[in-house]
Amino acid sequence: MTAAEASRGSTLPEVERNIAGCFRCPRLVAWREEVARVKRASFADQEYWGRPVPGFGDPGAAIYVLGLAPAAHGGNRTGRVFTGDRSGDWLFAALYRAGLANQPTSVSIDDGLRLNDCWVAAAVRCAPPANRPTVEERDECLPFAARELELLPRARVILCLGSFAWDAALRLEAALGEPRRRPKPRFTHGAEAPGERRTLLGCFHPSQQNTFTGKLTEPMMDTVFGRAKELAGL
User: Which of 9, 115, 151, 230 is surrounded by the fewest CB atoms within 10 Å?
Assistant: First the structure.
């Protein structure tokens, strides 16, 4: 079965089940399962998810937030993207401040978090070694995001967290049969690329490398999420 065939589903829950059952990338399968078996010492008493991590959020979402990949001891542990890691701490706090989440933190899949007008996913659905998926692994995963967007008809903004997600979003549009942008828009924080159906909006990834150094600050994230709401008509 091809990735495109595996991504098919008539509902978002069916697509997310298909994502969780994917074994198409041997390198990623081996790594995610090894991490889940060995575990980090501070999480030794927890059962790791150890599978591809589905997207989640509001089925009526107007904003589609696209990250890079699940963290080895974050989403790969908890089963929900950005949940249980430092990047997620920044993301969900920003979503809460923007009125797109009901709480500012997310530590587990059953912690009561709900998103409003927003869907969160990753370009690659498995935790990659050294947090660096290959472009082939990215492209193998794109049909999942494409199908999510087909089932999120109100989505008008793809908010890309980092250059990897930005490049994935451009290829995602091509996968959906939309015209390629010429010239190719360049990623930077706050970059906007209007399209026929959606606008791409860039934001530095809330990685510790960016947040600890001050390359990304809370006001910077708040400005981008405020702009996303404007573009989405919220």
Answer: 230
